[in-house]
Amino acid sequence: MFAIVKTGGKQYRVTENNVIRVEKLDLEAGAKVALDQVLMISDGKKTTVGLPVVKGAKVEATVLEQMRDRKVIVFKKKRRHNYRRKKGHRQHLTVLKINKIVAVKSQSEE
After folding, report:
1. What are the tens digits of pLDDT across the range 1-10?
2. Is 35 exposed, middle or buried (0-12, 13-18, 19+ CB in 10 A)?
3. Phi and psi for 72 in degrees, rounded to 5?
4. What are the two backbone dihedrals, phi and then psi, of residue 63, each rounded to the nearest 5 degrees?
5. Whole-angstrom Cα distance, residue 29 to residue 11?
6. What does the pLDDT look like over 64-105, one tens digit per residue?
7. How far apart are CA 83 and CA 2, in angstroms?
8. What percentage of residues in the chain have a pLDDT greater than 90?
9. By the 8 A CB rule, do 50 and 58 touch?
10. Residue 57: Cβ within 10 Å count
11. Whole-angstrom Cα distance, residue 110 to residue 104?
12. Cα–Cα distance between 23 and 14 in angstroms, integer?
């Protein structure tokens, strides 16, 4: 079973026991988080696509750590004008371990 979740403006394909790095969430290490913007869920046989999200579905995860990504160098130059700018950037990230994907049963399955 896998799900497509949206967090931090990006979409991630997750399965249970996955470890993913997402945009920074203001949570301490060891905290539980529920990602409720689930765009799609598939169990291999049946696929549910949300409009825009799947109602009632969520992905439960645990925060493993807060970290920073590797440095990205931004270098600007205009030739023949003696213009050079060098700047570095390190993005703040949150490492999540996916515990469980919770899908809701539709009315026809009950």
Report:
1. 999 999 999 9
2. buried
3. -110, 125
4. -80, 120
5. 22
6. 999 999 999 999 999 999 999 999 999 999 999 999 999 987
7. 49
8. 92
9. no
10. 21
11. 11
12. 15
Q: How far apart are CA 63 and CA 58, in angstroms?
A: 16
Whether the per-residue pLDDT at 14 is higher than 70: the answer is yes
Positive/negative CA dihedral, 19, 24, 28, 31 = negative
Q: How far apart are CA 33 and CA 99, in angstroms?
A: 10
Cα–Cα distance measured from residue 46 to residue 67, given in angstroms and rounded to the nearest whole number: 36
User: Global pTM?
Assistant: 0.84
C-beta separation of 22 from 94 below 8 A: yes
Q: What is the CA radius of gyration of the chain?
A: 19
